């Protein structure tokens, strides 16, 4: 067991913050190197750093923020926070956590300055080159080590400019840290594994301020937990080393859209395709329904079904896979959808597959769908009907659901190989709603009510057991089983070993 002193007597973070005096804050500032900075609420740089990406949690104000530039400074900040009895909560990216778990009234550790990216090619025996239609992939071409502040968007230029690829998610501003710690799904994961499956090692600052390197050969239990056990449970990860692939050539890309009239045949065909291609690592799909707008007629007019993805293979094969979808819809929709199927460079695909979400307010509820829990026509009909009852909001992102097809490499790993347990899924489903900062309070209330009803209209009173830990839902009761299944007990054992006093803690954190 890692030796730790007992933390100061428990107090709420707000009470604890009130007990921290100016001398304590000066001590923290003095302990930091010149590259890191402490911000207090009166500093002009404090407000933008305090604000999370999801403004739903904008009212949670940190007592102080350390903009961390080095691992040593993270150690100093963690040691200081323990000593004064404040929680220390890391935030990478812009703070995308759906449940506000990267917000705190204690000490916020903003990792955005840790932006280093170091590439180590590994030519020779360990890499292997294979051709998939118009693309040549050198698997495991080398490693790339990134600082905790690196975002998906920071990695994309590696692909666009040098053909180097690490699987990431859709949103450029999501932090690689939170993404990999909770799993990481995207448009290449069937081929190359989840983001966490590409992790080789990670540097972790523990609750006692010690720094450990976790990998298969060192602190293997912590390394296991850092691949799906979710952020802020075991320590502050300050860097991550991933295996990368080297690309040469093109990929197949498609982007399809129909009016909501086609929802039942499209969703049925898309689910059949996902099942038929479950073991085909090359085919990637995200399918969903959505709408946006304020007035009822806008919401109806904007309601649509959509599918997007990429394929590591020939255009002919991609057309054959998509044929049932390409045959659906009006003549105009069919023509537009057929035209969207084309060959592009992996860099162009990465841009086309990226989506930025307006920085406003949103909520999500997810479900892991297996071949036994795919959506029936009745469930799809219920979802479409409820979508048209969406109360509306000023957020362009609107509302709906998205389903990310899994399988391939992801499902090759046993559920206990890493902490990411969902290894027999066909889809990860996410129901979302959003509203704008300027919407009046009743819009938020109506959206949250609608969101709950939307989910339960689809799944009834017995929704699928598992949910995705990177789409945390603060209202989920049995979250231990939903996020971690049979891996939860092992996560608790890792937690007891590396953070026995539960210093890193939040409402759905791994317990001791
Ligand atoms: C618009 C949007 C799009 C998304 N798209 C995808 C997608 O395509 N694929 C996918 O898999 N997920 C996606 N997600 C979910 C995303 O993976 C999670 O929200 C993820 O946790 C975000 O990581 P972050 O570092 O940006 O967020 P944060 O809010 O900073 O962190 C998330 C959690 O990890 C902790 N944490 C952050 N940094 C560290 C660190 N360095 N060490 C230890 N703990 C840390 C935080 O305290 C918090 O508990 C999306 C989310 C949003 C809002």
UniProtKB/TrEMBL annotation:
Its cofactor is FAD. Residues 58-247 form the FAD-binding PCMH-type domain. Keywords: FAD, Flavoprotein, Oxidoreductase. GO terms for molecular function: oxidoreductase activity. Pfam families: BBE (PF08031), FAD_binding_4 (PF01565). It is an enzyme of class 1 (oxidoreductase). Its EC number is 1.-.-.-. Belongs to the oxygen-dependent FAD-linked oxidoreductase family. This is FAD-binding oxidoreductase. It comes from Streptomyces gibsoniae. The lineage of its organism: Bacteria, Bacillati, Actinomycetota, Actinomycetes, Kitasatosporales.
